[in-house]
Amino acid sequence: DQQVKQNSPSLSVQEGRISILNCDYTNSMFDYFLWYKKYPAEGPTFLISISSIKDKNEDGRFTVFLNKSAKHLSLHIVPSQPGDSAVYFCAASVTGSQGNLIFGKGTKLSVKP
Amino acid sequence: ETGVTQSPTHLIKTRGQQVTLRCSSQSGHNTVSWYQQALGQGPQFIFQYYREEENGRGNFPPRFSGLQFPNYSSELNVNALELDDSALYLCASSSFTGTFYEQYFGPGTRLTVT
């Protein structure tokens, strides 16, 4: 039973436009959420995170939105750049679980010039 | 500052054999977590080591075991390899931010079991 779901395996966006990656979760105990980016032959790289006490967190071109009532979060990338092409993983955790991250299956983003 | 490193990069083993994977944590990090990433899946938590002791474990059988050394480097050992153990094995070292353990991943070891 998947606790973190990324229902879109892939997403294609034109350079300069907005990319929106979505993630749903089922465990209401999750209180910290992260997005990682992964290039081929590299490990996941931390992008941005959000605590459950917030509903939005921004870092440059990246913004994460959290809707706790819907158990849904999204990552917005504006403007999208070809270098953003990668697999994006949503991850969730429970405070006190020593950082045990539960990952979704990932969404492959392709940004076309 | 040195990042997380893992060795070897690739490994091919036969079913029933044993394997040891190694990880050096990022400078200043004392916690190491191991994840298994099967093809088309997200990383799945195996276990975590803190101060040389197992500090949390995912849904993996006992034939998956680990060690952490005084310098915080770590090993993942898998006994009696099965075909389904073929995956990318990721190591992550952690830094406590005051609210959360932020994890930094290595490039992984690609294990193929034939």
Protein model, in words:
The complex is a heterodimer of chains A (about 110) and B (about 110). In chain A, about 0% of the residues lie in helices and about 55% in strands. Chain A has strands spanning about 5, 10-15, 20-25, 30-40, 45-50, 55-60, 60-65, 70-75, 85-95, 100-105, 105-110. In chain A, the strands form two sheets. In chain A, strands 2, 4, 5, 9, 10 and 11 form a six-stranded mixed beta sheet that branches. In chain A, a hairpin with a 4-residue loop joins strand 7 (about 60-65) and strand 8 (about 70-75). Chain A starts with a strand and ends with a strand. Chains A and B meet through strand 5, strand 9 and strand 10 of A and strand 4, strand 5, strand 9 and strand 10 of B.
- Quaternary organisation of the protein chains: heterodimer
Secondary-structure element order of chain B, N to C: EEEEEEEEEEE
Radius of gyration of chain B: 13 Å
Distance between the termini of chain B: 38 Å
Count of runs of 4 or more consecutive helical residues of chain B: 0
Q: Using the CA coordinates, give the radius of gyration of chain A.
A: 13 Å
Q: Please bin the fraction of helical residues of chain B.
A: under 10%
Largest sheet of chain A: 6 strands, mixed
Number of strand segments of chain A: 11
Q: Globular, elongated, flat, extended or rod-shaped: what is the shape of chain B?
A: globular
Give the rounded overall mean pLDDT of chain A: 94
Strand residue percentage of chain B: over 45%
Shape of chain A: globular
Tell me the span between the first and last alpha carbons of chain A.
38 Å
Main beta sheet of chain B: 7 strands, mixed
The chain pair with the largest interface is: A-B, 26 and 28 residues
Give unreliable regions of chain B as ranges. Answer: none
H and E string of chain A: EEEEEEEEEEE
Low-confidence sequence ranges of chain A: none
**What portion of residues of chain A is helical?**
under 10%
